[in-house]
Amino acid sequence: MSYLSKVRESNPLVHNITNIVVANFSANGLLALGASPFMADAHEEVVDIAAFSSAVVLNIGTLNDYAIQSMVLAGQSANKHGVPLVLDPVGAGATSYRTAVTQKLVNEMQITALRGNVAEVANVIGESWSIKGVDAGEGDGDVVVLAETAARKLGCVVIITGKDDVITNGDNTYIASNGHPILKKVTGTGCLLSAVVGAFLAVSEGASLEAAVEALSFYGVAAEIAAELTTGQGPGSFQIEFLNQLSLVTAETYQDKSIIKQLR
Amino acid sequence: MSYLSKVRESNPLVHNITNIVVANFSANGLLALGASPFMADAHEEVVDIAAFSSAVVLNIGTLNDYAIQSMVLAGQSANKHGVPLVLDPVGAGATSYRTAVTQKLVNEMQITALRGNVAEVANVIGESWSIKGVDAGEGDGDVVVLAETAARKLGCVVIITGKDDVITNGDNTYIASNGHPILKKVTGTGCLLSAVVGAFLAVSEGASLEAAVEALSFYGVAAEIAAELTTGQGPGSFQIEFLNQLSLVTAETYQDKSIIKQLR
Amino acid sequence: MSYLSKVRESNPLVHNITNIVVANFSANGLLALGASPFMADAHEEVVDIAAFSSAVVLNIGTLNDYAIQSMVLAGQSANKHGVPLVLDPVGAGATSYRTAVTQKLVNEMQITALRGNVAEVANVIGESWSIKGVDAGEGDGDVVVLAETAARKLGCVVIITGKDDVITNGDNTYIASNGHPILKKVTGTGCLLSAVVGAFLAVSEGASLEAAVEALSFYGVAAEIAAELTTGQGPGSFQIEFLNQLSLVTAETYQDKSIIKQLR
């Protein structure tokens, strides 16, 4: 059975500590997909929630010291209870505060999957990278090397999204080429992808790399279909149709349209 | 005149202390309905805002200690000034923290209406209830008994939503059967219902039970129409059409389609 | 070249310190327009972000003491680095706390543009004004006088929105008459306008008044087109189409439909 079908069958609880910009969109995207979102960051309860959730997703979009401490508590609880843990290091490298926070997070917990753009991932592992105009092209060996280096250093799956997406655990590496540029015109589409990866990891039974690759295919194909159905209409209509497609796209559809290349 | 017409005529100010997931959707739903939302939780101003509002709605979705204190201040101010007060105990029972917070809130203020699912309401009054797979069926005496027990214990209207909804003040009890399952695929539809109940209470002149019953009918019928108009399209389209219908459905429409049964 | 074209060409970074109700809508509106939103309020990073942004927009929608201090830090950093600074004094006058906060903000930093309704602007400069039912009609001399007084007192562009909008720097004054009443049925349309003004100021090279006038025309025309395309459908559909139009409307379109009158 596909991971998507497993998500839809078991409705895994996904605990999100996220930000004021994307909380609604992330919850609606997870619901559309078939998962059960739980947004909470109070120190008094995140340890409990992470423990009984099927995945925990940390997103530093509008971080502050309170939320960071929430993330540490939830992340360590996820680790203790064997719950898959996703980190989205939004804006790492944009400020020294964000860079320091993401490095603190990866030091204090074991991430299952890290999802960011190339500059964010580079900054998480202490490499500098120009933030503007960088995309992970299929032939761009540097991005692949960066992803694999990060995966080995952090001991986790690393997903670098760009024009093409790199997904690697350090040993095996895939390039995923679905998706659509209009995703960049809707806020939180990267954050929601991280949450969707969490939902797929929730039903992966340890096959994190395979589940992540499938999550990327599903998400990219849903975006392509939504973009095609709203051609010329604008990002408002795309956003709504994308939520629709997250609920409508089947495993057969995205497996049929999926463009995945295994590098090694 | 129907309570809906009164809301649309007087645009009551509804003060919401709510969460980062549903704040936007709740505000847009209240505006569509014809009410005036005011979202604010600063300790320095909630006492004032609650005092001059026509209803106060407290929602613990992404609670923390600061927001709880805001709720206590606003709730007590609402009580002092005779302003109807709605509590949505999101996730009560899911963590001991949430259970404790909701019990603290009902102890420190007099709620006018409590709106939650069966597990949430049970936990507010200290009864345990399994959280998963519980719906308030018409023939499910236990849910009715629970609602009536809670209403008497708290001295307020209790609304338990599920497949069917129970609305009671402890003496008179109604079952409302409008609505649509796709509501569960959009985050915050329960929270927005609580806010809509607040708007109806704002114009109820003390007839809380009747106003709550009418709010449930209105909301359920709007959902049914929106679901029919977006059949097969997905939760994105439903969400938008639902906002449309909250502004378009008239008292005549929902009174015509309303499925209400008085139990006693 | 129009300011709109400059925004779309340079994608200016707009730093927003805003509220939980409108953060998502503001970010999506800025993205649709062609700007790059950055929402962040942590004290550890707002000074840095304001410094490298092309505009800073402060919105007190769901203010609290932490966010106010964030605004002071970001505003003073914007001033130091010559970055245009917009203030949206949401609800000034509704509570004494809000009034005091807005007065503190304008005292501790130099605003480039203030955008509010007539009651909000009046309260920022310490004049009382009835909050309900006040619109800036073309023939309403008092609103124009208020706007010009505020502009001179604060040394900035003042934009008072209502049925018609007044835009002035104290010396030159314009009345803009585009827009549509359904804007009031969608939460955050005023807040997003303030953010859009920020994006236009970001590319204004000091021509703040001209950029603000153009921003108002663009925004009003986009609303008119969206309202026409969704006639009779409701505020949900309007909201989505409005986001579409923010990405679709060209400088030619809004310059053609713009209704601007220079008073002096």
From TrEMBL, chains A, B, C:
<comment type="pathway">
    <text>Cofactor biosynthesis; thiamine diphosphate biosynthesis; 4-methyl-5-(2-phosphoethyl)-thiazole from 5-(2-hydroxyethyl)-4-methylthiazole: step 1/1.</text>
</comment>
<comment type="similarity">
    <text>Belongs to the Thz kinase family.</text>
</comment>
<keyword id="KW-0784">Thiamine biosynthesis</keyword>
<keyword id="KW-0808">Transferase</keyword>
<keyword id="KW-0418">Kinase</keyword>
<comment type="function">
    <text>Catalyzes the phosphorylation of the hydroxyl group of 4-methyl-5-beta-hydroxyethylthiazole (THZ).</text>
</comment>
<dbReference type="InterPro" id="IPR000417">
    <property type="entry name" value="Hyethyz_kinase"/>
</dbReference>
<keyword id="KW-0067">ATP-binding</keyword>
<keyword id="KW-0460">Magnesium</keyword>
<keyword id="KW-0479">Metal-binding</keyword>
<feature type="binding site">
    <location>
        <position position="39"/>
    </location>
    <ligand>
        <name>substrate</name>
    </ligand>
</feature>
<feature type="binding site">
    <location>
        <position position="188"/>
    </location>
    <ligand>
        <name>substrate</name>
    </ligand>
</feature>
<feature type="binding site">
    <location>
        <position position="161"/>
    </location>
    <ligand>
        <name>ATP</name>
    </ligand>
</feature>
<dbReference type="Pfam" id="PF02110">
    <property type="entry name" value="HK"/>
</dbReference>
<dbReference type="InterPro" id="IPR029056">
    <property type="entry name" value="Ribokinase-like"/>
</dbReference>
<dbReference type="GO" id="GO:0016301">
    <property type="term" value="F:kinase activity"/>
</dbReference>
<protein>
    <recommendedName>
        <fullName>Hydroxyethylthiazole kinase</fullName>
        <ecNumber>2.7.1.50</ecNumber>
    </recommendedName>
</protein>
<keyword id="KW-0547">Nucleotide-binding</keyword>
<feature type="binding site">
    <location>
        <position position="115"/>
    </location>
    <ligand>
        <name>ATP</name>
    </ligand>
</feature>
